[in-house]
């Protein structure tokens, strides 16, 4: 049964601080906790805040582990648009987290099912995700779990929808360069996280925010499964929050 904490913020900086408060509390309670992390534009203020808090001595990442939600298929760690590189540049290179304690699905894996299984096993060996960060796609995707006729359980390969490729082309020089498939944690992997923080900004996300939390639970809107998660904190700005009051 959904237990939804809603935090309203006005600016991206406030969002970063509100999300960082949750991460800080989890890390203080469990210094070797497992963070499930996300990429995209919305997490950037959070990552800036986490870096600043470690520099200020408020957080210590030296024992923390992290597992990212997803990666483009075919992009290696040095590709400017790979999610591994995004994480290095925007967070990992600036905090004390140990390189061996960060995992991102391998976009260049030749045996993808084996890589996905190993990814799940690693998270399990770490004791599961303590706090999972999520954004939401315009089509309701979480990670790269696109609308579909079932909820994929484990980490797996997916074909990206035209909507997702269109939304992400802003990071590439043309739509043709946006990969057509990706590797993502499954819906089961995400739902197994003990705590979830979802960050949403912008009027363009209001409608999907409404569908996710107040519409029917359906794999056509993958994020709607969160209605069954017991501990979700939704942090949104006023423009996105309009979707709460429809
Ligand atoms: P965004 O990405 O938060 O950068 O919009 C969310 C997503 O597509 O999952």
Structural summary, described in words:
The protein is an alpha/beta fold and 246 residues long. The chain has eight helices and ten strands. It has helices spanning 12-29, 44-55, 83-90, 112-125, 162-168, 187-191, 206-214, 238-241, and strands at 4-9, 34-37, 65-68, 70-72, 102-103, 131-134, 156-159, 181-184, 195-200, 232-237. Helix 2 (44-55) links the parallel strand 2 (34-37) and strand 3 (65-68). Helix 1 (12-29) packs across helix 2 (44-55). The radius of gyration is 17 Å and the shape is globular. The structure holds 2-phosphoglycolic acid. The site of 2-phosphoglycolic acid has 7 residues, from loops.
For this entry, give a set of tags:
246 residues; alpha/beta; 7-stranded parallel β-sheet; 3-stranded antiparallel β-sheet; 10 strands; binds 2-phosphoglycolic acid
Task: Give a quick precis of the structure.
The protein is of the alpha/beta class and 246 residues long.
Arithmetic mean of pLDDT: 96
- The low-pLDDT segments are none
The count of strands amounts to: 10
Strand order of the largest sheet: 1-10-9-6-2-3-5
Rg calculated over all Cα atoms:
17 Å
Order of helices and strands: EHEHEEHEHEEHEHEHEH
Number of H- or I-type helical stretches: 8
Bound molecules: 2-phosphoglycolic acid
Question: What class do helices, strands and sheet pairing give?
Answer: alpha/beta
Largest sheet, in brief, is: 7 strands, parallel
- Dominant shape: globular
Task: Please bin the fraction of helical residues.
Answer: 25-40%
Beta fraction of the residues?
A: 15-25%
Q: Please give the alpha-carbon distance between the first and last residues.
A: 22 Å
